Amino acid sequence: MNLPTDRQTTFESSWEGATVLGPEEHGVQRKQIHPAVLEVVSRLSKAGHPTLVVGGAVRDLLLGRTPKDFDLATSARPEQVKALFQQARIIGRRFRLVLIRHKGITVEVATFRAEPSRKGEAAMIMRDNRFGTPREDAFRRDFTINAMGFDPLTFSVIDYVGGLKDLKQRTLRTLFSPQVSFTEDPVRMLRAVRFQVRLGFQMDPEMERTIRAMATEISPVVRHRLAEETQRFLTGGFAVASFQRFQELGLLKPLLALQDHRWFFAHDALENALPKMTPYLKALDAWAEEEREKVSPTVALLGLLLMLGHPDYLAFLAAEPMAVDRRRKVMNAFRRGVPDMLAEWGLLKGQVDPAMFILLAAHSLLRDRWKARFHPGRLMGGIREAWLLVALLAGHLNLDRSFVAKGLALLPELPVFPILDHPRPDRHGGVYDPRAKTPPRLKPRGEGPPAKRRRRGGKRGRGRGTGG
After folding, report:
1. Which listed residue, of 211, 352, 381, 452, carries a Cα 20 to 30 Å from 138's Cα?
2. pTM summary value
3. Active site annotation includes 71
């Protein structure tokens, strides 16, 4: 593909004060960048909108890793970006983004942002929807190693914030004072642990002290953001190390917020959750290390909640024998209370129903186990994810290996349930999947027009004469 070579389409004129590395210095090769990303950048640049690859993709390219996705920042406004691409959709409220579906991947394009508006000298961000320059966009990010830009047209790395130095020293550092940075967005404390564990970097000592002092500040954060971040730690192969680090820094208790749902969680989990969850986290890490069938983070999250829940709920899921009265009480609480608990704990409305389908499908599988028959469950919604959940809980439930192996052998034949790994809420609070050709089949509970009543037959039915 022939990319434009006009250097006027780049931001070289505004690179004053930035460290710029050419292709001979950083060693990034074109084959490391997805062709769809190059085409999107080329089309935006030809339209007069210079564009940079930003965020974690630049960091991973410089570390020799394969980026899981590519985020772009451009001078174009969202409406201008959408006009250039047929399969594009504008999302977001606080700051609008454009998701472009091209050549099998989804590319996220944002407009360069300016410094956010804050309430007070060091307070949480109140407004973050102003457009800006590449330099301003770099200085509004979280960590120095995530604030570099990459120009795919000239293959240059642009660093305004000292990220190249920290990347070389393998140090994780905020752009500004850690207290200011974490007050702006407390979720950055969780992201700091994720990058430290996943990349093997050392944390800046001042940052670590600040996290220990401000750990409880994540409690007021919207629960959906915390649940989404929690899911990210479960399936990457570093679950045990991540949650142990949370415990050391004092982040685990405010992150899980188990005290808000005492009726569901076990008493010992409320007091000390880490020992109760560690066997399950080890199973998740072993699963990821063996590179077995991919587990949706939402499925992994359901298993974690069950491990921390009251033993009766796990016993109900496994269809273990219990007294009739007790079983009826647990079943009613499970069916009526768990959906509300999942929604309040952080799942979106569009995720709650699929999550319940998966849990009830797992209950059906394990119930048939007691009847000494194998139930493939091909016609049940969420059966594929239910088998994965059962496999992850197999050690804790003492399940027969042959039973689990038969179920896992069915996975290639079973359809994937419409539940996303890291969904974005749409304007109605549901789930928007940019990869799906059709909208999700499941509607949020209680929404949509009422179903039309079918006309009954009889004397007054259609086609029946009344005589005369």
Report:
1. 211
2. 0.79
3. yes
Q: Which CATH architecture has domain 1-169?
A: 2-Layer Sandwich (3.30)
pLDDT digits (tens, 9 = 90+) for 7-19: 334 445 556 677 8
Q: Considering 137, 142, 159, 166, which one is annotated as catalytic?
A: 142
Among 71, 137, 151, 312, the active-site one is 71
Q: Which residue, among 36, 41, 106, 104, has the nearest Cα to 76 in the 3D structure?
A: 41
* Residue 69 appears among annotated catalytic residues: yes
Residues contacting residue 323 through CB under 8 Å, at least 6 positions apart = none
Q: Is residue 312 among the annotated active site residues?
A: no
Name the segment(s) of the chain with CATH classification 3.30.460.10.
1-169
Q: Which of 60, 69, 368, 433 is catalytic?
A: 69
Band (pLDDT 50/70/90 cuts) for residue 99 is: very high
